[in-house]
Write a structure and sequence with these properties.
180 residues; alpha+beta; two-stranded antiparallel sheet; 4 helices; elongated
Length: 180
């Protein structure tokens, strides 16, 4: 191939990359909506993807993370730590809770599912001010089928595409959005 051919190839691939990237974002949003609805109505959280010939290539799983303890009022949290664990306060010009201690507390509260901490020495349960369990956004995870560490699902899709065997609905060149 000549340099001129490579420049045309680069331009073509860049244009296709941009178009396919935009279409991927649109389809991913539809799958997000569909999986969220499927989970609500049928409990379905995982769907498989197969090529038209039946080759299993991937799964998409709807992941709904549990809420995590988060400091939402730094002043209230710092004052509680100052009262109950003054040794964990690091005083400088700015007073702040030691990061490792805060992370440990938040991890314990996340695991417990409440903004409370139990003093293991006294058994006293503290409601920790300034901490709220904040829900994390659900998301989808796409995993290609693997065999011996190789993404054989991705390889099968590329092979089918190269051999024009992948009649995937919505993927034919005329199905992609037209240029504006």
């Amino acid at each position: 191939m000549s340099l001129k051919d490579d420049v045309l190839l680069q331009a073509t691939l860049a244009a296709l990359h941009d178009t396919i990237g935009e279409e991927l974002a649109t389809v991913k949003a539809r799958v997000d909506t569909g999986l969220a609805e499927a989970k609500k109505t049928t409990g379905t959280q995982k769907l498989g993807a197969e090529l038209p010939d039946g080759t299993d290539v991937a799964t998409v799983t709807w992941v709904s993370p549990a809420a995590a303890a988060t400091v939402t009022d730094e002043n209230a949290f710092r004052e509680w730590v100052r009262q109950h664990h003054p040794d964990q306060i690091h005083a400088r010009v700015v007073v702040e809770v030691r990061e490792a201690f805060a992370k440990g507390l938040l991890k314990e509260m996340t695991a417990a599912g409440v903004a409370q901490w139990c003093d293991t020495e006294t058994g006293e349960v503290h409601t920790v001010p300034g901490v709220t369990l904040v829900g994390r956004r659900a998301y989808q995870r796409l995993l290609f089928k693997k065999t011996n560490g190789r993404e054989v699902g991705k390889e099968a899709i590329v092979s089918a595409w190269r051999e024009a065997r992948a009649a995937v609905p919505g993927l034919a060149p005329q199905a992609l959005p037209a240029a504006e």
